[in-house]
Amino acid sequence: MRPGHDRTPVHAPGWLPGVGAVSYGGDYNPEQWPEEVWAEDVALMRDAGVNLVSIGIFSWGLLEPSEGVYDFGWLDRVIELLHANGIRVDLGTPTASPPAWFFDAYPHTRVVSRDGTVLGFGSRGLVCPSSAEYRRAATAIATQLARRYGRHPALALWHVHNEYGVPVSEDYSATSAAAFRTWLQERYGSLDALNAVWGTAFWGQVYRSWDHVGVPALAPSVVNPAHRLDFARFTDDALLACFVAERDAIRAESPGIPITTNFMAGACHSTDLWRWAAEVDVVSNDHYLTAADPRGHVGLAMAADLTRSFAGGKPWILMEHSTSGVNWQERNVAKRPGEMARNALSHLGRGADAILFFQWRASRSGAEKFHSAMLPHAGTGSRVFREVRELGAGLAGLDEVLGSRVEADVAILWDQQSFWAQDLEWRPSVDARHRERVDAFYDRLWRDGITVDFAHPEHDLSRYKLVLAPASYLLTARAAENLTAYVAQGGTLLTSFFSGIVDEHDRVHTGPHLSVLRDALGVTVEEFLPLRAGERVHVALAPETGAEVPDEGHEGTQPPAPVVADVWADDLTLAGAEVVGTYTDGPAAGRPAITRHRHGAGTGWYLSTRPDADGLARVLRRVYRDAGVTPAGLPEDVEVVRRRGAEADFVVVANHTDKPVDLGLSGVDLLTGETAEPGRGALTVAGGGVRVVRTPRA
């Protein structure tokens, strides 16, 4: 009998079928090794506490050695070996890497870059997503896998493709051009409508035939930004359609088994993950530290919060991260002792109920042979493997954390389509980049110990005390109405510069800039006043009245020190707002810089420049008071996140310093069993250490 044939999987209680524990493991690529190594791998997995592995992700050329001819023998044996040892399977479809025979048979499916270069075979992910031949072949291999293994008792999850949009997403081939025209016809209906929304009267770009509409390849000057924006949307739709085709083929053969694909939240800019999250059964994410960033743990936290937000607060899977260094950055810094556990448990603290790595055994060959692994080249006697084993033992005691939720009072707006538009050419300042502002705001909230959700501007925001809009350049009328209603109903909104400028077609909103948020913010922008490189401006803050905590730039009877800012200034026109900060120099000297406006039951703030880190902290302290948000007062680089359970809470503390800290924690550390009772001592967190503390329900 072939594996999985006529078997009915037994679904034990848990968020994945048959999974009632925190999942631990990673990508397993046995096809890279002689078969006699497999038994050793599985024995070491059991020793390390591994209970879930992802397999088959890059094995298309082995599973289908020629078109329509399949060989599942080796995969049968791998799955049976894993199942016999109690290790669950996340079965991948290998469609991120079509085999050599595919490109030989269908050479026109190769990706064409924006400059017209045809990209060759020998890498991964290089296929035209609009290709009918690719869609057919990918769906066929997914169907075959689902028929063979879809009811196998080892199967816990389906893993479609791998990191959609990476390493390339946009394809400028003739196939994509034809598909793009069809997409535009379905979206706009007529050339008149297309010409109107693209503003083709500018530079004489009016189209009279659909055949004349092409992809926005390199041109003598800047290409129409509305054209570029729609091509980004089309590309996202094409990639998503590939996923949906495979997903639906699998569902037909493997009912009841959840299906995912691994996101790269915040790292891949070609996918609108709000849309993707609605199409997967469970959200999963890959995350790798930026080695050049000495405070990469903040970026990790942001990616985790993004992923949890895409998941709607439900449990999610950390599908990949690294045990130590990676291989694809300029300087692949190794993780220090204890850093792997902090990284893993920081993800868990922010909602992940599965902790997986790339990969199980380090590769001897190929492009990623210097990528760290759970079982490194140095073997079982290595520090990395000892830490892998220790982490597995610790996670084995965290079953009761499963299903608990992270709750946040603050949200940062995240709209990938706005980011696509903002970062195109010929904006008022090359320094006004969306990601820099989002990172700066998130970093400040992280330092203040405030847990953050991310939200789309059109989402229901009513549960948040404070909403921050660091980079909302593109704001639809619906989104603007939503934000205005949020303020009117009692929310606090802080909007940063270069926001609310254009609609969904990258057309400037009528009236002065920021008019779409005039009611919420009480201010409009008459003119942008971007600054020269290196130029600074200063903002004098108005004295606070009735504040329990004075501005930290205030000493004695002296007025507060000015806020130092750069990159941007606005010439503002007040429409009911009060002035909180005034430019003392620069192109807007004497004019309002920071405003506050009461609208209905709430408050709208506008920040028209880019303050330095200290200045942003001082502004946010005032905004926090309006919103009723209290910073946690944590020591520098100590991270605390609370997951709320039905009967208890779970506080995850990661100490990213080399000195012990005492936060007055009481409860049971689920990693060590150590207990501290209120008034009878507290749980100290060692330098570089991490704790997962069960406490009474807050």
TrEMBL record:
It holds the Pfam family Glyco_hydro_42. GO terms for biological process: galactose metabolic process. Belongs to the glycosyl hydrolase 42 family. The keyword Glycoprotein does not apply. Keywords: Glycosidase, Hydrolase, Metal-binding, Zinc. GO terms for cellular component: beta-galactosidase complex. The active site is at residues 163, 320. Gene3D superfamilies: 3.40.50.880, Glycosidases, Golgi alpha-mannosidase II. Its EC number is 3.2.1.23. Zn(2+) binds at residue 128. This is Beta-galactosidase. GO terms for molecular function: beta-galactosidase activity; metal ion binding. Substrate binds at residues 124, 162, 328.
